[in-house]
Design brief:
309 residues, alpha/beta, 50% helix, binds S-adenosylmethionine
């Protein structure tokens, strides 16, 4: 009698916690995104597990042996070369839109000699990015909304944004703002999580439920398809009329499993962060596996975009 009651009681608590966390992180406004990243930054879970880059890694020929953190650094260099950012001279000004805790910004400054301004909607990320950045690094960080960039037109030689657009509902405005602050002749380099098809209605019930989870769990209002976001960039009144796209799903796919395995490779993290963080980490596993499944199946795609202003 006692055991079934206990089982029922704990299942009910687990269900309440699950629903609370799910709704807690669901996108309502950009405030939900900043609240999610403030909390992910303060609990240090992402940083301890995956390092200073909050994006997927790049694996050549689907090579899985690559160290996860090294693959993330490789990703930054691959995007720099694919987009043509490396052709800009040292001292060029780059804005990193949705900069996280500054992983990419520091590489752009240290390896390519750029002056980088990282902006993020999370004030806690700004604080942490500043803490992690040595004084001699040519990077600055400020809290700002990607949709309300407080800079005149053509302010930057390069615009860089990695995995931020999925958190933004107004995709056209996002495209407009990035292109507006890019100077004529400057370089745009964007990478993002995209949905495979433009139209949700063509998805079957399971796929729709999965997509809903991918949106709600990590504060995403909507994913764009690669082609739709290319159209946003082309249709922008600041567009230069040519935007190249590519699909890097196969190069980034191993990252999903790796992001779980990192938790096993680094058991000391759990001693340092404590049991609550362990539970928070375990709680992300279903979403990570759903992400992997969706990218492998074509429900999601990893898009890259480049344009020369
Ligand atoms: C997945 S993280 C990527 C972070 C960083 N680009 C990296 O690769 O490490 C998404 C980032 O986008 C930022 N972001 C989301 N919506 C934003 C908005 N409306 N304005 C500015 N930043 C935003 C988040 O605060 C977070 O820093």
């Amino acid at each position: 009698m006692f055991f079934p009651f206990l089982l029922f009681f704990f299942s009910l608590i687990a269900l309440i916690i699950f629903i609370w966390i799910s709704t807690h992180r669901k996108y309502n406004t950009s405030q939900s995104v900043s609240a999610s990243y403030d909390s992910w930054t303060n609990n240090r879970l992402l940083e301890e597990l995956w390092g200073e880059h909050i994006h997927l890694g790049y694996y050549n020929n689907n090579q899985k042996k690559q160290d996860f953190r090294k693959a993330k650094i490789d990703f930054v260099h691959k995007l720099v070369f694919w987009s043509g950012l490396h052709k800009l001279p040292k001292g060029s000004s780059i804005i990193d839109i949705g900069c996280g805790i500054g992983g990419s910004s520091r590489i752009l400054a240290n390896a390519y000699g750029f002056n980088v301004l990282g902006i993020t909607i999370s004030k806690e990320q700004v604080k942490r990015a500043i803490q992690l950045t040595p004084e001699d690094c040519t990077c600055k960080f400020v809290e700002m909304d990607a949709l309300k960039l407080s800079f005149p037109d053509g302010s930057f030689d390069g615009v860089w944004s990695v995995e931020a657009g999925a958190h933004i509902l107004e995709k056209q405005l996002f495209a407009d703002e990035m292109l507006r602050v890019l100077r004529p002749g400057g370089v745009l380099a964007v990478a993002d999580w995209n949905k495979g098809k433009s139209n949700h209605k063509s998805l079957n019930l399971i796929d729709r439920l999965v997509m809903k989870q991918l949106l709600d769990q990590w504060s995403h209002p909507e994913f764009s398809s690669i082609e739709d976001f290319q159209i946003n960039l082309l249709n922008s009144r600041f567009s230069v009329g040519k935007v190249d796209i590519d699909d890097w799903t196969k190069y980034t796919l191993p990252s999903w499993n790796e992001s779980i395995i990192e938790g096993v490779r680094r058991p000391k993290i759990w001693l340092k962060l404590g049991p609550l963080s362990f539970l928070q980490g375990v709680r992300e596993i279903p979403t990570i596996l759903l992400m992997r499944w969706s990218f492998a199946k074509g429900l999601m795609r990893f898009g890259v975009f480049r344009s020369r202003g």
